[in-house]
Amino acid sequence: MSPPSPPLLQAVDLTFVRDASPIFDQLAFEVDHAEALLVQGENGAGKTTLLRVLAGLLAPEQGEVRLKGELMRPSRGHADIAYLGHLPALKADLTAAENLDLAAGLLGKRDGHDVEAALARVGLAGYDDQLARSLSAGQRKRLMLARVWSAPAALWLLDEPYANLDLEGIALVNDLISEHVGEGGAALVTTHGAYAAPPVRTRTLHLVRAS
Ligand SMILES: Nc1ncnc2c1ncn2[C@@H]1O[C@H](COP(=O)(O)OP(=O)(O)OP(=O)(O)O)[C@@H](O)[C@H]1O
């Protein structure tokens, strides 16, 4: 009998220290395929810091992040991870379509998730030629969600995906996550609010500032 495969993501005793004070200390959890972990916590609790460590954008003081059992090293990106951060990772002088093309060149693209389909999926059909700089904050968030939806990554790390969105946009985020999890993907989602619908709350991690 073959050994069980390791979970998609393992946080092993993660400690992150800023200015000599720990943000989180010996944090350990796992997220597997078909799971969504909702990360909740007050302002400053360390949610963004945690997601950036998991994305490999920040190095922990101690502990490690494992993806499919393999040690992840800090880097600019990882093929198994689609990260949606607080700050728009869009090129302001490129159009919506060009931004998605650029992301596909860097991150790859899921079959059938071409630019037209991605814009339509997030409610931006017809915005192909609009510059990212002239999109509203909610439309920029939708474009960032289109990037995530188009990527072939199994693990979505979504930092405040509900921010700037209207009610229909909040429902869209929950739909996208449910669909992804239903297809065997996984997601970590941070929020302060109660926006995450039940399918997005497979489990909850309540983050409390370590000191
Ligand atoms: N670049 C930075 N330099 C110094 N301190 C930082 C930096 N980024 C975050 N911090 C500090 O680290 C702590 C955790 O911040 P983080 O952004 O991870 O919290 P959060 O839970 O995401 O907060 P919020 O809910 O307000 O978005 C805070 O005290 C914050 O002030």
TrEMBL record:
Gene3D superfamilies per record: P-loop containing nucleotide triphosphate hydrolases
GO-annotated molecular function: ATP binding
Record-annotated ABC transporter domain positions: 9-207
PROSITE patterns: ABC_TRANSPORTER_1 (PS00211), ABC_TRANSPORTER_2 (PS50893)
Keyword Ribonucleoprotein part of the UniProt annotation: no
Cross-referenced SMART domains: AAA
Pfam families: ABC_tran
Alphabetized UniProt keyword annotations: ATP-binding, Cytochrome c-type biogenesis, Membrane, Nucleotide-binding, Translocase, Transport
SUPFAM superfamilies the record matches: P-loop containing nucleoside triphosphate hydrolases
Protein name (database record): Heme ABC exporter ATP-binding protein CcmA
